[in-house]
Amino acid sequence: MAKRRDFGQIVKMRSGRWQASYVAPDGVRIYAPRTFAYKGDASGWLAERRAELIAGDWVDPSAGRIRLGEYAPVWIRERRLAIQTRDNYRTTWRLHIEPFLGSVALVDITPARVRTWRSRLLANGRSEGTAAKAYRLLRGILNTAVEDERIKSNPCRIKGAGDETHSSRYVASVPQVFALAEVIGGRYRVFILTAAFTGLRWAELVALRRQDVDLEDRVLYVRRAFVERTGGPVAKLPKGGKVRVVTLPGVLVGELRQHLAGYVAPGPESLVFAGAKGCIPRRSSWRTTVKWAASRDAAGLPQDFHFHDLRHTGNHLMAQSGASTRELMDRMGHSTMRAALIYQHATHERARELADKLDALVSERRNQDES
Q1: Distance CA 363, CA 371 (A)
Q2: What is the DSSP letter of 29?
Q3: DSSP letter, residue 337
Q4: Choosing from 90, 115, 306, 334, which is the catalytic residue?
Q5: Cα separation values, 17 from 8, 10, 48, 61, 118, Å
Q6: Residue 188 catalytic?
Q7: CA distance 218 to 224
């Protein structure tokens, strides 16, 4: 039987359990997702819903019944993102989130479920970095679900789960850079040197054209970057959204002059670093083409040394040369100081190391004079 109440309705079922319901602001009756063993529990559930309505925190439970597998792809598609970022999000979603949570309704994604999902990612061999990227993506999607009033709060509440701890990357020595370039040789010899001594990204290097190289003024114009996609490379503005000018060290001028003469077709639009068939090098196959693992080993570089570490090496050398934070930002193509300060910090550590050696030398010479 039903009993009249100030808010909602409680009905005793034939089973002896209690069913609670109330009329939502839109006039639709909302039933509790479960029945209750005790009438007091049903009353408590109604009291919580009433408090939400009074406080303005009420969310239509039917809005959260949409599955994450329906909501997330639309979020990725409609979000304002760079091409590469959108592709990365789609890959992260497909590999690390959808298989675990795609069939779950938004309203059923609880903090406990998020913890279990993250634990399964790590147990299945995903790295801490991969798990952090997936967690950040899930958190961003569910933040929007809160804004869309599909769920009341974001269940992603694991402290530090979205943080990545970047291990210190290896900095190649100048002889190692030249050794790697010599071992790889051919049309990719100067590709290696340019990556190391300009700090350009892969996507920026493979997008360089003859007209972007001014050897008289010793500069490269970074006007575009090529992003690899399933249908082929797509041109976009370099990171930061603007053209930048990178000054060349003298040692690279002669190397580029010989490379342009020997490997680059005439005409301002010709690619500076094209493959043997004149096509844009694909990062996915380049490692095989140049036998990267064997070349890296022959140059005395560690097994975890990646192509991107050449950029890291170049930026480190630039910082050691005395570049300011602003100069490093401009050269690297960063809009914030965070990355530049990493190299500045490394330079400060090197400066302290040299100061300690100087201190030891002064002390040694002073002791010699006194004895």
Answers
A1: 12
A2: E
A3: S
A4: 334
A5: 17, 10, 19, 22, 36
A6: no
A7: 19
Q: Is the pTM of this model over 0.90?
A: no
Cα 215 from chain centroid? 34
Specify whether 308 is catalytic: yes
Query: Annotated catalytic, 306?
Result: no
Annotated catalytic, 166?
A: no
Instruction: Out of 49, 201, 296, 312, pick the active-site residue.
Output: 201
- Residue 338 is which amino acid? R
Written as one string, the DSSP assignment of 209-277 is BGGGEETTTTEEEE--EEEP-TTS-EEEPPTTSS-EEEEPPHHHHHHHHHHHHHH--SSTTSBSS--TT
Tell me the per-residue pLDDT of 212-261, one tens digit each, with 9 for 90 and over.
999 998 888 999 888 877 667 777 777 767 788 888 888 899 999 999 99
Catalytic residue among 34, 308, 326, 345: 308
Once rounded to an integer, what is the mean pLDDT over residues 328-341?
A: 55
312 catalytic residue (yes or no): no
Position 324, amino acid: S
- Of 90, 335, 328, nearest to 237 by C-alpha is 335
Identified catalytic residue from 150, 189, 209, 311 = 311
Whether the Cβ atoms of residue 263 and residue 187 lie closer than 8 Å to each other? yes
Q: What is the C-alpha to C-alpha distance for residues 201 and 195, in angstroms, rounded to an integer?
A: 7
